């Protein structure tokens, strides 16, 4: 049993941030501080943690993070008004609305209220399609992170069979389109898939995006496959049974320390991109 | 060898048009004639034929077709200006830009200039994403036709493995998303797919959207599979070797008389939908 290549998200993330640090310095010299506005609605503790992590990551790079916290009982209209203000605020370059929002809010309407040029998290409907058609400025961050990891480790995509387990608007669907645009053959599986195991067993590249702890079993992995685990569940475990999958994979992302850190770096990168584009 | 069920596009189309005829009459009684503007740029004879067919189909239903013909040397700016006029013209309910346009034109920009509420052909970037997220008013017409045929013949989609061969923005990609949204497991293949035959052989539902005559061979079809041929090539042949595929399929669309007529009916349906929505 060979040890698989560890796809080290912290290393990929550090590489991205080293490049960003230079670009932030150059912007600072022009009097510009790249600024990410984060909107947290309600009191979900995990969401609060995520938002704090993103804010801290901004500060470490010399970027600004503008934290907006709104009460649980916020209405869609109130949230849309806040987003509209941020769209018009020239000191804000990127807007992140932390998912999920309380259930009385029309989340899709809120996402789609974000101006496309500030949609650094890649959550708008239009942004999804631009990504699917291969001309998005800001693809969704987790899919972008997965592609960045594959590229950092020079893992081939063209002609490979990628099996994506999950079909959400910000993960399963966009990563499928990105892999397809890089000439992979892509199979999209989900909760209603019959014979999931048989599909995963054929994959050269497995993307786990289910949101269920250790759902993908080691014996489902074809020997030599590349496994990217975008899950992050309670108890610090991913969507894959790590030890089991690692026994068959040629390369695998750990959880934590895999896709997660790169996702945050992609958010920072998009915000710096936006600051540069909005201040040419 | 059993004879497969013939998925008769003319029958499906006639059913749709019978319903539309009533709706057109109701609109006429309110003084409204559903109107489709068609834009043909250049002198491609097949494109001219398609536009004429669409216009005739409108007239037969008591709808209006407004034909705009522009010279081969039209610039992107000129085309965008024409589209903008049609967007603002309250007597026009739907706009169709015949594909392909001459190569000096930015086709994507032209498609995306069409107002989303008049994008009855389902060609805008935003419309694609709304369809992928399952809330489009006007999905692309050929994918919509494929779904209408499956539904007309009550062919199950949920849990089935659909293999789509082709990944274009108005056919392969949107039909993949529509099948996925109906709970099929979807594999998207294309010109760079390795082992195409092995993928197609696993399909419960095959969608051929390649644009190459008789490219899909009979022996690639799993016995009992449903075959939908969206191809239409010179010599009146589809993307599938019809006789070969029919020998294995449980159901199959002919070419001509399969997906094609339903595609035109979907365009008419969307135009009537738009006329109703724009005149509530």
TrEMBL record, chains A, B:
User: Key word DNA-binding present in the record?
Assistant: no
Which catalysed reactions does the entry list for this protein?
(6R)-5,10-methylene-5,6,7,8-tetrahydrofolate + NADP(+) = (6R)-5,10-methenyltetrahydrofolate + NADPH; (6R)-5,10-methenyltetrahydrofolate + H2O = (6R)-10-formyltetrahydrofolate + H(+)
Residue positions annotated to bind NADP(+) are 166-168
Report the residue ranges that make up the Tetrahydrofolate dehydrogenase/cyclohydrolase NAD(P)-binding domain in this protein. 140-277
Q: Which residues form the Tetrahydrofolate dehydrogenase/cyclohydrolase catalytic domain?
A: 7-121
Example GO CC term: the record gives:
cytosol
Q: In which pathway does it act?
A: One-carbon metabolism; tetrahydrofolate interconversion
Q: What is one GO biological process annotated to this record?
A: tetrahydrofolate interconversion
In short, the EC number is 1.5.1.5, 3.5.4.9
SUPFAM superfamilies to which the protein is assigned, alphabetical: Aminoacid dehydrogenase-like, N-terminal domain, NAD(P)-binding Rossmann-fold domains
Signal sequence, start to end: none
One GO term in the molecular function aspect is: methylenetetrahydrofolate dehydrogenase (NADP+) activity
User: Could you tell me the keywords of this UniProt record?
Assistant: Amino-acid biosynthesis, Histidine biosynthesis, Hydrolase, Methionine biosynthesis, Multifunctional enzyme, NADP, One-carbon metabolism, Oxidoreductase, Purine biosynthesis
Q: Would I find Translocase among this entry's keywords?
A: no
Under the heading Pfam families, the entry gives:
THF_DHG_CYH (PF00763), THF_DHG_CYH_C (PF02882)
| HAMAP family per UniProt | THF_DHG_CYH
What job does the chain carry out?
Catalyzes the oxidation of 5,10-methylenetetrahydrofolate to 5,10-methenyltetrahydrofolate and then the hydrolysis of 5,10-methenyltetrahydrofolate to 10-formyltetrahydrofolate.
Q: How does it assemble?
A: Homodimer.
- What does the similarity note say? Belongs to the tetrahydrofolate dehydrogenase/cyclohydrolase family.
Q: What is this protein called?
A: Bifunctional protein FolD
Q: Where is the organism placed in the taxonomic lineage, from the top?
A: Bacteria, Bacillati, Bacillota, Bacilli, Bacillales
């Amino acid at each position: 049993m060979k040890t698989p290549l560890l796809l080290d998200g912290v290393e990929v993330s550090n590489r991205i941030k080293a490049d960003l640090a230079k670009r932030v310095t150059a912007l600072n010299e022009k009097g510009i501080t790249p600024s990410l506005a984060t909107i947290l609605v309600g009191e979900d503790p995990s969401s609060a943690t995520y938002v704090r992590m993103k804010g801290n990551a901004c500060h470490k790079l010399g970027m600004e993070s503008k934290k907006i916290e709104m009460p649980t009982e916020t209405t869609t209209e109130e949230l849309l008004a806040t987003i509209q203000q941020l769209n018009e605020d020239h000191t804000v370059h990127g807007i992140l609305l932390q998912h999920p929002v309380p259930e009385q809010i029309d989340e899709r309407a809120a996402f789609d209220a974000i101006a496309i040029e500030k949609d650094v998290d890649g959550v708008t409907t239009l942004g999804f399609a631009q990504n699917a058609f291969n001309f998005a400025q800001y693809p969704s961050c987790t899919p972008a992170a997965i592609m960045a990891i594959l590229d950092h480790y020079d893992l081939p995509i063209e002609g490979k069979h990628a099996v994506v387990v999950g079909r959400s608007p910000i993960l399963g669907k966009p990563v499928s389109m990105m892999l397809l645009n890089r000439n992979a053959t892509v199979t999209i599986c989900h909760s209603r898939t019959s014979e999931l195991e048989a599909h995963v067993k054929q994959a050269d590249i497995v993307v786990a995006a289910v949101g269920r702890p250790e759902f993908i079993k080691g014996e489902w992995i074809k020997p030599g496959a590349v496994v990217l685990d975008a899950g992050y569940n309670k108890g610090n475990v991913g969507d894959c049974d790590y030890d089991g999958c690692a026994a068959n994979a040629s390369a695998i992302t750990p959880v934590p320390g895999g896709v997660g850190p790169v996702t945050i770096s992609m958010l920072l990168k998009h915000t710096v991109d936006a600051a540069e584009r909005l201040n040419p």
